[in-house]
């Protein structure tokens, strides 16, 4: 996971944005939003830029408005990618924030959700978080998965998927090129017992669903199309 796209177009961050609140949940500092008594929950797993980005929290609030209890934990422990720092070492950062560790942390969050009465959990991940979600999709911890412009995915990982999964990719993406995502979709389609969905969005680049410019009408529109696809996928299986 060392190509540039993951670290391009860094978003602004704000600790004050969103309708929810920040609290400890499952051992992690977490943005929480939505009805706390809902037995349906969605776990959103951020990209390299962390859980404080306004577009991500806006999306969390949108998912919560559909009736879900939504958690957005800080899987980076206060250390998001700081690409504006000339001393930022991309490779060292990636080694420090392994997606396998992210998956273990996510399982603790899911256990906390279930301990509060949640009966069904969906998970969506963006770039770095997409790889974490694919790991979760090979377990019984979640009921459904969505990955959006994921980091590199292997055929072996995809072959292990055991829950319904949607993959939303960008036409312009060095990490997960459309051709590769389509091949992974073909592997998923051989699993007759498993519902899957692969969609490539034209004219957009890696990160488009959460790093869009809110003043760019066309960018907002195509990001919202992906958000609706994600919500529709959740509505089929988180119930």
TrEMBL record:
Recorded GO MF terms: hydrolase activity
Dienelactone hydrolase domain sequence ranges: 29-237
Stored SUPFAM superfamilies: alpha/beta-Hydrolases
InterPro entries according to UniProt: AB_hydrolase_fold, Dienelactn_hydro
Name of this chain's protein: Endo-1,31,4-beta-D-glucanase-like isoform X2
Organism: Durio zibethinus
Gene: LOC111279275
